[in-house]
Automatic annotation (TrEMBL):
Protein name: Helix-turn-helix domain-containing protein
Keywords associated with the record: DNA-binding
Organism: Paenalkalicoccus suaedae
Domain HTH cro/C1-type: 6-61
Example of a GO cellular component annotation carried by this entry: cytosol
Length: 110
């Protein structure tokens, strides 16, 4: 889960939850909810802020190392770029999933 990875990288950096929240400009209560897996679908903006302070790639927070390597190997460069563009545009995972479902439905209609 993303919260476990955030906690792991935060602790590796030797930061308290308050320090990370302050440096990233996010609410400590929200960061706490993420780390405790109470909130499990943070925005891309939140992930970007946390990743920057922790000096890690966003993919490291989104996926465990094994999954990241597997995903990167199975995606060609163009797909990887499209995924990064979607992530950077502010679209949530839920919105992206909704789009994919709509697209499947639309294709069945034709």
């Amino acid at each position: 889960m993303i919260g476990e990875r955030v906690r792991k990288y935060r602790q590796e950096k030797g930061l308290t939850m308050s320090e990370l929240a302050d440096r990233a400009g996010v609410a400590k209560s929200y960061l706490s909810a993420i780390e405790r897996n109470i909130q499990s679908n943070p925005s891309i903006s939140f992930i970007e802020k946390i990743a920057e302070v922790l000096d890690v790639d966003m993919n490291q927070l989104l996926n465990d190392t094994a999954s990241t390597k597997k995903s990167s190997a199975s995606l060609d460069a163009e797909w990887q770029e499209l995924v990064e563009l979607a992530m950077n545009s502010g679209i949530s995972k839920e919105e992206f999933k909704d789009f994919l479902e709509f697209n499947k439905w639309k294709m069945k209609q034709n």
